[in-house]
Design goal:
Elements lengths: L9 H10 L9 H8 L3 H19 L6 E7 L25 H14 L4 E6 L7 H14 L4 E5 L5 H10 L3 E3 L7 H7 L5 H13 L3 E8 L6 H14 L3 E6 L20 H13 L6 E2 L1 H6 L3 H6 L5 E2 L6 H4 L15 H15 L19
Parallel strand pairs: 1-2, 2-3, 3-4, 4-5, 5-6, 7-8
Helix pairs in contact: 1-2, 1-3, 1-10, 2-9, 3-10, 4-5, 5-6, 9-10
């Protein structure tokens, strides 16, 4: 039976219990809700606790994972996404394999990032073997880089082919744990199918990343708590979350973030996510900078431990607009590298060396 704390100490008690459970009982929705409502001194204590848990489990060094957005074609029609198939606003592009390789070489030469994240819309523009070939060449030519792919739902055998080609990790966000809300926002997919993809990846020994948006229209605080619990249930190696930012070129463009009147919720969610998932890599995602001038810096002080700069060739960045206000679209990879170093130096945080694989399990041996 749990010790019953005084009412004034509920937040501190629950923060301790969730990050270091004393009784072996996993957290439940009711445990998370008081933390997600924390205010004033309790909120400061929550952030401090999340930062302490991050420090204890992840250390001070910040892994850098450089993103290359190699195509903005997408076959899907997700209601919130600027890349949705029916959106005529973006100029569509698809980087050639040689261009992707050149971007990976530039990342490796800079010597800052230990990972290249190859991200694109969910599109048949590349064959499965095309991507496998790109992964093989990156792994051969820049063996020090870990490789993450993020290209949506695929069959298990395709994930296995990419793993065998040299893919270390895969990123596939579930976005919301509520099946009805997921179905309303994703007409081309079901939550069950998305979660099966994540199970397939884990069963293949691939380091698996997922996550969700904070404040999707229709989200409640209970759903937000369930999102965090789903991440803990899957025991993801990396968890990326960030505020939902309305895109005027989408069907949800006129629907504000569910927590627009309470922007602290974005950081509360991050802090509680860290408490519930102490040893996950949690990036300070670009969406935090889209909402707050120094959002990623704050995220790194409230539970996040990874920085993911944009390494997409600068002429293409403006066309990979998931949402408006995306930072760094006018910079090149060198500018971004300098910016990352300056931001981390200001926070007193060193850059992590090497690929910074999962803190939960060793990488797959091939």
């Amino acid at each position: 039976m749990r010790f019953a704390p005084a009412a004034a100490d509920v937040v501190g008690f629950l923060a301790m219990e969730i990050s270091f459970p004393q009784h072996g009982k996993p957290p439940e929705r009711a445990d998370l809700l008081p933390l997600l409502r924390a205010a004033g001194a309790d909120l400061d204590a929550l952030y401090a606790r999340a930062d302490a848990v991050r420090r204890a489990h992840c250390g001070e060094a910040v892994p850098i994972r450089a993103i290359v957005e190699f195509s903005n074609y997408c076959a899907n029609g997700c209601l919130y996404c600027g890349l949705r198939a029916s959106n005529a606003a973006p100029h569509r592009y698809r980087m050639a394999p040689a261009e992707i390789l050149a971007a990976a070489r530039q990342i490796a030469a800079a010597g800052i990032a230990g990972t290249v994240v190859l991200q694109a819309g969910e599109t048949p523009g590349y064959s499965d073997e095309d991507l496998a070939s790109v992964v093989r060449r990156i792994k051969t030519e820049t063996p020090a880089l870990a490789i993450t792919l993020s290209v949506g739902n695929r069959p298990r055998d395709v994930y296995a082919r990419w793993r065998d080609a040299g893919m270390d990790r895969y990123l596939l966000r579930f976005e919301t744990s509520a099946p009805d809300l997921f179905a309303r926002l994703h007409p081309d997919c079901t939550l069950a199918a998305r979660l099966q993809c994540l199970r397939d990846l884990k069963s293949l020994g691939v380091q698996t990343g997922s996550g969700f948006m904070i404040g999707l229209p229709g989200e409640t605080i209970e759903i937000l708590a369930d999102n965090i619990l789903l991440c803990r249930e899957f025991d993801f190696d990396m968890i990326g979350i960030g505020p939902y930012v309305p895109n005027p070129d989408t069907p949800l463009g006129d629907q504000p973030n569910a927590y627009a009147a309470d922007p602290d919720m974005f950081f509360r969610a991050l802090a509680v996510l860290r408490l519930a998932n102490p040893d996950a890599h949690i990036p300070a995602t670009t969406a935090f900078d889209a909402v707050f001038p120094n959002g990623r810096d704050l995220a790194l002080q409230r539970g996040a431990n990874v920085f993911m700069p944009n390494a997409t060739p600068s002429p293409l960045r403006k066309d990979y607009q998931l949402y408006p206000g995306k930072p760094c679209i006018d910079e090149d990879a060198t500018d971004c590298a300098r910016c990352v170093q300056a931001r981390l130096h200001a926070l007193g945080r060193p850059v992590a060396q090497g690929p910074a694989h999962s803190l939960k399990r060793p990488p797959t041996t091939r």
